[in-house]
Amino acid sequence: MSGLQPLSDNLNSECRALAQALRELFAELAVSVRRCAARCYVDAGTLSRYLAGTRVPPADFVDDFLRHIEDVRGTRVEQAARERLRVLRIAAVRTNASIGQAVQQLEGQLEAADREVRRTSVREEELDHALDGCRHAIDDLDERLTELEQPSGSVRRPEPLDADREAILEERNVLALHVARLSTELERTRRRAAFAEARCELLERQLEVVERHRGAVLPEPELVRLVDPLEAPALVAGFRPKVLLVDDQRPNLMALEAVLDTHGHEVVSVASGREALKALLESDDFAVIILDVQMPGMDGYETAAHIKRRARTRDIPIIFLTAVGNDPEYSMRGYAAGAVDFIVKPFDPWALRAKVAVFVEICLERREHALGRD
Fold it and tell me: Does residue 19 surpass a pLDDT of 80?
């Protein structure tokens, strides 16, 4: 079996199962990858990737491969074996399609965040320019006031000068109010620009997590575990980051738990905003909070406001989970409440895993850095 690569270490269960089934059939041929590839009408590199699990083969290849097996055996491959291979291939294709959807979703969010960066940068320049103009105008008016107020010996100033002085002062006051308004808007614009820049960086990191595994994806529980719990200094020191899930619907919590339950962090699920605040009082080891917007009693916005008011919890990133769609009004209200991201139901599991993975990674990096300082 010359040229056969080992199974990739970074495979989910679907891709691994398909690759193992293909390898079992390939082992019966007792030929090199190159000879088998020629008989199945593919190049050797492509066949090698199919057998290593790093690429899902098309249906046509599977048919050609089975025909070649039958030629060597001299008998037909059992129908049950054919059906099993077909089911395994469909499962692997669906997994990779989900990753593709996650990439598309994250790329769209990154593009929107990048547009916001450009828009706020342009507005920041406009405001800076307008402020400079107003300040220069105020300086000119101050010079004119100084000239009017300079003593002119025993010569009495004519009455119109008093009117000029009042007009200059009134114009100066108007400009001063305009400067205050522009300064306030400039500060808000700078904050929006900084938030958009930070969001771009987060989305780029999230894309790296998903794109890294387009062809060969990590097992379901492994994607979020970017740092090995047995090797990470922060975890060795007894630190295990938590992910807080907040949703009043138990089926929603179960779906989130199934997607995010891993060995690298602990998942804590609660059914209300008040329970979330209680959980945050009991521990501050949370890497990220997944918070449902629409809950009875204390909704997601109110819960987020309480979280951001507390010194111990204000820096924990919040991802809002909502079923109301991509309405900008809801997004802006969420960001104003302190959210770092918005996910619309039904959510893409790979996109959600990637987002959580980045915040868990950031939490571990901060913890390790803090331990290093100590």
Answer: yes
